[in-house]
């Protein structure tokens, strides 16, 4: 099924054929106490035409208690209509001062929906999940809700 998705004719992709930077606010521990807050900042490269239109990404998360996450990943966006798109993204990264997650290597993935305000300005809502994928002795996980603004250039 996964191979079919990669090699089949692509569905309508989002028309975001530009690079962007974004800043967002997040609430973490969504299904627990929902008491951790953070700032998410990322750079998203324009889609790579030769690589299924994946968009390479760099993500930095600054949370309370000097917690940080530095990740590299990719996103895949799909067009809903001229103003709306949705997609998925996944990152692998280093978690600093996040001992509660059980390991320094963490994977952050999310689903998002994006609205185009103008050609350069977008807002995005996402729900994300971070986990060490079993690399640590324990694998506590956390979920987040993020609201972001992005500038496309």
If you consult CATH, what is the topology? Porin
Strand-residue proportion: over 45%
> Would you count the extended β strands for me?
8
Outline type: globular
User: What integer value in Å does the Rg equal?
Assistant: 16 Å
Rounded mean pLDDT score: 85
Tell me the major beta sheet.
8 strands, antiparallel, barrel
What's the SSE pattern? HEEEEEEEE
In summary, what is this structure?
The protein is mainly β. The chain has one helix and eight strands. The chain has one domain (11-152): Beta Barrel (Porin).
How would you describe the overall organization of this protein?
There is one protein chain. The longest helix has 6 residues. By secondary structure, the chain is mainly beta. The N terminus is likely disordered. It has one domain: Porin, CATH 2.40.160.20. It contains 1 helix and 8 strands, in the order H-E-E-E-E-E-E-E-E.
Key descriptive features of the protein:
Porin; 8-stranded antiparallel β-barrel; 153 residues; disordered N terminus; 1 helix; mainly beta
Summarize the helices and strands and which ones pair or pack.
Elements: H1 2-7, E1 20-28, E2 36-44, E3 55-63, E4 67-79, E5 84-96, E6 105-116, E7 121-131, E8 142-152
Antiparallel strand pairs: 1-2, 1-8, 2-3, 3-4, 4-5, 5-6, 6-7, 7-8
């Amino acid at each position: 099924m996964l191979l079919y998705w990669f090699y089949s004719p692509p569905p309508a992709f989002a028309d975001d054929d530009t690079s962007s930077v974004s800043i967002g606010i997040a609430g973490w521990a969504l299904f627990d106490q929902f008491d951790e807050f953070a700032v998410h900042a990322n750079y998203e490269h324009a889609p790579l035409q030769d690589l299924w239109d994946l968009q390479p990404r760099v993500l930095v998360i600054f949370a309370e208690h000097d917690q940080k996450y530095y990740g590299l990943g990719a996103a895949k966006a799909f067009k809903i209509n001229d103003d709306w798109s949705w997609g998925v993204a996944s990152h692998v990264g280093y978690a600093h001062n996040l001992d509660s997650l059980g390991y320094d290597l963490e994977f952050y993935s999310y689903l998002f929906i994006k609205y185009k305000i103008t050609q350069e300005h977008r807002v995005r809502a996402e729900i994300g999940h971070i986990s060490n994928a079993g690399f640590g002795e324990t694998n506590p996980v956390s979920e987040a809700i993020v609201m972001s603004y992005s500038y496309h250039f």
